[in-house]
Amino acid sequence: MEPQKAQRGIIPQKIKGFRDIDPALNQLRAHIVEKASQVYARYGFEKWDTPVLEYADALGKYMPDTATVEEGVYSFQNPEAEPVLDSRGKEMSDHEDKVIMEHHHLALRYDLTAPLARVYAERLWMKHLRGQVSTANPPLFRRFQHGPVYRYEIDLDPGRFREFWQLDFDTVGSADVAADAEVCMVLSQALEAIGMPRETFQVKVNNRKVLKGLLRGLGVLDDSRERDILRVIDKLDKVGLEAVRQELGAGRVEKSGAPIAGLGLPEALVEAVGAFFVAFEQALPREQTLARLDELLPQEPVAREGLDELRRIHELLAAAGFDDSRARLDPTLVRGMAYYTGPIFEVESLLTVPGKKGQRRKVGAICGGGRYDSLVERLLGFKVPATGASIGVDRLAELLVLSGQARPKATGPALVVVFDEAMMPEYQKLAAEIRAAGLPAEVFYGAAKNLKKQFAYADERDCPVAVMLGEDELAKGVVTVKDLVKGRQSQDIQDKDQWRREVQFEVERAGLAEKLRQMLLR
RNA sequence: GCCCAGAUAGCUCAGUAGGUAGAGCAGUAGAUUGUGGUUCUAUUGGUCGGGGGUUCGAAUCCCUCUUUGGGCACCA
């Protein structure tokens, strides 16, 4: 596709769906990751990092036989040819006994869970071959991980990116419901540690077995049918019960005129499903939710098993001091992903964000997770139970900024003003003194050294203070400190000299660090 | 992939009986050659998203592509 009319240009620009992260956002992101990680670690999870690039086969589901980018994954062929291995890990040969070489398909990771499965399976591979591990004795593995993941989204909604961060924690190798209860505790505590007050979010728990059991009781036995129904129900809080009813039945027509095909379920089934969700429209205390589930759920074994698990989760949460305000049972929770097999989790933000036309916009889920059995199965051939959850770092950061919980502005260092280039050694010494006290300091290195520029730079960087040292100060053994924060606030003073007198003062060189410390800690 | 609405200066936008463009903010410079904010003055910025068509003439009308926003579908 050569441009025909003009020479192809080189335009400096980002790939669509990718972002530059400025210092302010980086600071916020680091805060989120650090606080949540501390909580994860306090529960015993250990931090792992894995490569962003993996063999496409290992990531699963996705098996490209062409070189095209499809299915939402960035992939390409390895420029390096490598041997093809058989299922026992041995190099395969052709009829001339030559090792078969291939350029394997590689893919950027699309989440952190698939690489987790690979790490876990890779560590067990030899034992697996020797038959020393099986579904009866999977080792316990608890790790947390954060970093960028990549998805080739065709349509980019606002707030959706092709590179974004996740912050996961998972327990692999335990089928104990206690591990699921713990997920709720970790999520709740992590968000509080990040600085979200308890009343601004809600941890919600449900169980896929409950939903499965409900549908079975109503005669839905087919898995793909079940998935279709769950997908519609997942939209409940978005479109409302009536719309869900219609979509389960004959379908409906969107306000915009777009028709939405219905599943065409029989009237009686739609009504039964609708009735169940009406019963849980209002948030109830966990005890009451359990009691009502007990009444409404059919005597299907799956349903009862799911209910027992929820009951157990409630017990354990209560024992650990997590009451209704910190985690709630929500039988209407579905979650989109198909691979969940047991308890599922979601954190909904209760903060609203001012929309374009002044209306309040709700932000969706900021965390999600659940139990999944089969992720490792594809790699090792037997089921390994696992449960965990993930914080959507970027979505949370955006939420904090938009809702006014965090200000998106990085604070700059103390700026050492350069009066006279000849005194540069003195400025370096001064900056070193400030840094030695553990405070950030920067000497001005810009091209134009007039003071106006230097202060404009300090203002732009949001520096809290500027430190000035000229011949006068040097002779007196002092430095002049300018309080830029106060200066920014004193907009009512119009007289230049008076304004200056208000915001700057001389300090003995020896007491400078202490004075700056006081100012920076405000 | 579908429906709707946009694309004009760095940003937010104005600009219809079709006659090659304006405002506010930002930027730059000065008042203030040892000073950011505030105030005042001057001033730089635009192939009006790309291409094609209608016309003597198009930011304005038509077609098309690209792109942005709002809905929907999809989301391992």
Major beta-sheet overview: 8 strands, mixed
At CATH level 3, the topology of the largest domain is BirA Bifunctional Protein, domain 2
Spans of at least 5 consecutive residues whose pLDDT stays below 50 are 1-5, 62-69
The average pLDDT score comes to 86
Span between termini: 58 Å
- With strands numbered from the N-terminus, the spatial order across the biggest sheet is 1-7-8-17-16-13-9-12
- What's the overall geometry? globular
Q: Please give the number of β-strands.
A: 22
- The number of distinct structural domains comes to 3
Q: Helix coverage percent of residues?
A: 25-40%
The DSSP helix count reads 19
Which structural class should the secondary elements be placed in?
A: alpha+beta
